[in-house]
Amino acid sequence: MKYIDNCSHLINWNSIIESVRNLEGTRVTYTKEFFNVNLPGFKELDEIWQNAGFQYGEPSIEWINYFPDQFGNNIVEEFSNFINVKPWMVWISRINVGRMAPLHKDAHSKINELLLLGSPKRFTCFIENPKESFGHVSIVDDVCITKFKQGDIYEWPSYNSWHAGGNGGITDKFQFNFWGYV
Ligand SMILES: [Fe+2]
Question: 45 CA distance to ligand 1 centroid (A)?
Fold first, then answer.
């Protein structure tokens, strides 16, 4: 993970988090309905999770996504201009207490469209106040960053690195995710 910069002077992440906290978002769980193994990436992942012993309906596997229409397209534009990378898919992910996203690569049915646009890039922005992030875990490849300042931006080693997230803390976890291209 490569440190890029800090954007907290541009974006008030506390207010963004509060603006989505009570919204429903898109809830993702490990069910046969969600895991359409005919889509690129899902079959491989499904096999790995099944081999690991996860069962469909496993209650600890859950995360919630919020998209720009919920937290503001202006945030995407500010962030994109700041890092000088064009946005492709941007979202805030939430993992509630006691939940997790086991090791996976993000699967997207239209990933080939991103690859045609240019060189794909992936970024994580740590948007929580560090005081609120105790027990929150984000792993990308072999790196887990726990000491960060609110607004710290990291670039992933690859647009499709293996990663995992979990919440063993006592507050819900929020993170900003940016897939883009140059
Ligand atoms: Fe992911």
Answer: 11
pTM of the entire structure?
A: 0.95
Can you give the length of the chain in residues? Answer: 182
Ligand 1 centroid, distance to 122 Cα (angstroms): 11
Burial of 113 per CB tally in 10 Å (0-12, 13-18, 19+): exposed
**What is the whole-number distance in angstroms between the Cα of residue 162 and the centre of ligand 1?**
8
Q: How many domains does the chain have?
A: 1
Question: Strands 120-126 and 100-104: what pairing?
Answer: unpaired
CATH of the domain at 15: 2.60.120.10
* Whether 150 contacts 126, CB under 8 Å: yes
Provide the token pair at 165.
């997230």
Q: Ligand 1 center to residue 84 CA distance, Å?
A: 22
User: What is the whole-number distance in angstroms between the Cα of residue 174 and the centre of ligand 1?
Assistant: 13
pLDDT tens across the length of the chain (182 residues): 999 999 999 999 999 999 999 999 999 999 987 777 777 788 889 999 999 999 999 999 999 999 999 999 999 999 999 999 999 999 999 999 999 999 999 877 788 898 999 999 999 999 999 999 999 999 999 999 999 999 999 999 999 999 999 999 999 999 999 999 99
State which residues form the domain around 20: 2-181
